[in-house]
Structures are given as C-alpha cells and as structure tokens.
Amino acid sequence: MAAGAEENAFIRAGRLIDVEKGTVLTDQLIRVEEGRVVSVAPYDAPPSGAKVIDWSGYTVLPGLADMHSHLVGDIQGGIIDPLLTTGAEDVLAGAGNAKTTLCAGFTTVRDVGSWRAFTDVALRDAINKGWVEGPRMAVAGGYFTIPGGGGAITGLAYDAKAPEDMMRGIVRGPEDARQKAREFLQHRVDLLKMIATGAVLTVGTDPGLPELSEAEMRAIVDEAKKYGKNVTAHAHGAEGAKMAVRAGAASIEHGSLLDDEALRMMKSRGVFLVADIYNGDYINEVGAREHWPEETMQKNRDTTDTQREVFRKAVQMGVKIAYGTDSGVYPHGDNAKQMPYMVRYGMSPMQAIQSATLHSAELLDWEKDTGAISAGRYADMIAVEGDPLEDISILSDVKGVIKGGREIHCE
C-alpha cells in the first residue's frame, strides 16, 4: 500500500465523525506527522508557526473507500469499446479517473479488474510513486473467467479474437486456474477476482447461472492464500455465490439474486457483501438513451430491484457489508450517490458511512492504516458542509480532501 505523504499539520474539525465509536465530537484538533494521525483531542491552540488547516466550519470524517471500482479506461459503453483503445490510453484515462475519484472524497479504492491485464497495477504504482494523484489502490489485475464468461470479451464475430492481454484470466480447469492465479500474484496484485456467474453487462451470459466450477475457484483461493491475499467473487446468482463462499472467497460482489441460504452462509463465515445498488438506475436511464443492447437492459431490469431487496435483507440479518459502487459503469466522481440508496434500503446514515470506512478497511486488511481518524492511521479525511447523519446526500458535495496529511487541490 502507498505510504502516506510526509506531511506535518494540524487540522481543526468543527465536528468530527468518530466511526469507531459511532459518535460525533465537536471542535477537535487532529495532529498529523509524516502523513499519519498522531492524536485527536479537544481543540487547543497549536504551536506558533505550525501549519493549520482550518475545517472548523465543516463536518470532518474519514476518507471514504469504494470497494468495487474500475478506474482504468473509459466508462462502460458498447460491446467493442474496450477494443478501441490501447493499454497506454486506458492507463492515462485511469489517471484522470483517479484524480476525479480522490476529489470526490474517496481516498481508497479496491479496483476489481481491468479489461487489459495489469493496467490497474501500473496505475496503482504511478499513484504510489507520486506521478499521479489518486486514491490508495488495491488492485486485482484482471478477472478469472471461463471462455465466453462474464469476464470475457463477448459478442464478437465467431472468427474475431480479443487481444491476448484481455484473455489472461480465462481458465480451463483447476490446474489452469491455479497456474494463472500464480501468474497474477507474481505480477504483484493485491487480490484476485473470480467471475462466479454470468454478468449483466456481458452479452451472452446469464447473471443467475454459475460459470467457474467450485474446483476452479478453490484452486484460485488456495493459491492466493499462499501469498497472503484475499479473493473476491462476482456473483449475481445464489448458487454461484454459495460455491464461491465454500471455496473461501472474502466477499461477494453484486449479490443480486442471493437467497436466504447464501446470506446465512456469508454471515456465518464472515464473508462481505459488496452490492452496487445505485447504478441500476443509471444503466436504465443512460442505456436506454444510448441504445445499449436490449439483452443488457433486460438483465438490468431483472436484477436491480431484486438486488436492493437482497441488500435490505442482508442488513437485517447482520451480514457484513462494505461499500462498493461499480464505478466505471457510471461516471467516476459520482461514487457517493449510492449513500442515500443504502439508507433507503435499511442502513442508518452512520452504518452507511461505516461501510465506506471501517468495514472497507477490514475487507482490505488495512485496519491499521485506513478507515478511521485515529492515532496511527493515515491522515486521510474529508470535509462537508452540514450533517451527513441528517442528510447523507451531502457526501456528494465534498468541500475538502486530505490524503496523507496533504490537502488535495481540486477544481
């Protein structure tokens, strides 16, 4: 993970949301040294000459985290769009998306795969080296999928072939899955992503049907464990999700068609749900306007409402939930638009904020570094006007962003 910028400063917070205790503190002074929080205490005048960032008129909370993002490349469009740009162009587009995401208040993202293998690794490394401004990134490198599956380029003519770097994660059997998992891990990814079921946006696949076999998923998870890495599973359908949970996945992405048994399994094993319950509305509106394939639009209609009801039930059952939006399907920078949906479908505003802070840090195994404004963690925080516990939608209008103790300049 990227080291915090070596910045020393004091931040005065008018109101401070303590996500660890679930409370709000008033008039606090946050001391930062070498990019990390040293102390949080009631305001007392800092030493003369010290750098002070005055956020006394704002509500301050930890930098937010999106656990399902796709920063590299342009936003989702037509079937052949991924074939119209080079890997270099995709990374350069990703640099712009990274800055936009950071300025929207998301100081951490888990990037769960790019079409061209390892372009997300290049973007992560550029951010860590200070070449590009962006959030702290955990990256998957690509997708593990079956031939013609939810993570493949589909819909092409039968004699057309996708570029090799778009097929690095296509697996044919458990041993092939193990070997390709090892290859990804050797390319320094932070996690692995499996496509356990079909996808809404991949033509020719059924979101409810399993794709990877359980044996293939176990091989991928087993290899990841050797490297100390977690695995996530794209899974709309219940059976594919259960297979992924039994195989050892740390989280289930989407979860649109999960049944009670799948949710009980997830709860009992501490598996996170990362459900993108906002972007169904975006797809319905923009896809219709831009004439996306009717198959895609029908699958979106078939899964949007069911996904939201699964989310509501998961909240009621106490399943662990981390914040994830599928950014890249909708325009980057709109990540916080999902917050009101999470409240509408069962969470309190504090729970929604905790899902994008504490619980996301737990999913990443980054609890010592991110997820709260407390001593020892990176000084990643944002400022908003008003009270997000009264009106969660104000998180879409961030007034200030600090990453590693350094104020980010956003236009």
Strand count: 14
| CATH third-tier fold name of the largest domain | TIM Barrel
Given as residue ranges, the uncertain stretches (5+ residues, pLDDT < 50) are: none
Name of the top-level CATH class of the largest domain = Alpha Beta
Percentage of β-strand residues: 15-25%
Counted up, domains total 2
**CATH architecture type of the largest domain:** Alpha-Beta Barrel
Q: Please state the overall shape, judged from the principal axes of the Cα atoms.
A: globular
> How many DSSP helices?
11
Helices and strands: which structural class?
alpha/beta
- Please estimate the helix content: 25-40%
CATH superfamily of the largest domain: Metal-dependent hydrolases
- Lateral arrangement of strands in the main beta sheet: 3-2-1-4-12-13-14
State the separation between the terminal residues, measured CA to CA: 27 Å
Elements, N to C (H/E): EEEEEHEHEHEHEHEHEHHHHHEEE
| Radius of gyration over C-alpha positions, nearest whole angstrom | 21 Å
Mean of all residue-level pLDDT scores = 95
* Largest β-sheet summary: 7 strands, mixed
Report on the architecture of this protein.
This protein is α/β, with parallel strands linked by helices and 411 residues long. The protein has two domains: 9-63 and 372-407, Urease, subunit C, domain 1; 64-364, TIM Barrel. Helices cover 31% and strands 21% of the residues. The protein is built from eleven helices and 14 strands. It has helices at residues 87-103, 119-128, 174-186, 214-226, 238-247, 260-269, 279-289, 294-317, 339-344, 349-355, 358-364; strands spanning 9-18, 23-33, 36-42, 52-62, 64-69, 106-111, 136-139, 191-195, 230-237, 251-257, 272-274, 381-384, 400-403, 406-407. The protein has a seven-stranded mixed beta sheet, with no helix packed on it. Helix 6 (260-269) links the parallel strand 10 and strand 11 (272-274). Helix 3 (174-186) runs parallel beside helix 4 (214-226) and helix 7 packs antiparallel against helix 8. The longest helix is centred in the C-terminal third of the chain and has 24 residues, at 294-317.
